[in-house]
Design brief:
Blueprint: E1 7-14, E2 17-24, H1 30-36, H2 39-46, E3 54-59, E4 64-69, H3 90-95
Antiparallel strand pairs: 1-2, 2-4, 3-4
């Protein structure tokens, strides 16, 4: 099962920092999200972000996790030549993550 089967995402940016929120569709999946989506696993999924640069915040009242990724936007919106300078596609990339042991 992929993350997008049980959650949706939203992104934001500030300078060179991206934040990605992952929100469970069903509160029953909150424990699965909290247990499986660690900062290290998110960093490994992207592959280019050092794990030390991914900070996870839990929002249990919203059944959501928020990941703040330093240096994710190659200089920030006004400095980057990237096609997605705001990092809006990063939520889609994260939601494509395969969740081990979840059927």
């Amino acid at each position: 099962m992929r993350l997008h089967d049980i959650a949706h995402g939203r992104t934001g940016d500030k300078g060179d920092i991206s934040n990605i929120s992952v929100i469970a569709y069903d509160p029953a999946n909150w424990d699965t999200l909290r247990d499986l989506l660690t900062s290290d696993r998110v960093a490994a999924h992207f592959g280019t972000f050092p794990a030390a640069n991914v900070t996870r915040y839990e929002l249990p009242q919203l059944h959501a996790l928020n990941f703040v990724i330093q240096g994710a936007l190659t200089g920030g919106v006004t400095r980057s030549l990237a096609l997605d300078a705001h990092g809006k596609c990063l939520a889609s990339v994260l939601l494509d993550m395969e969740l081990p042991g979840v059927a």
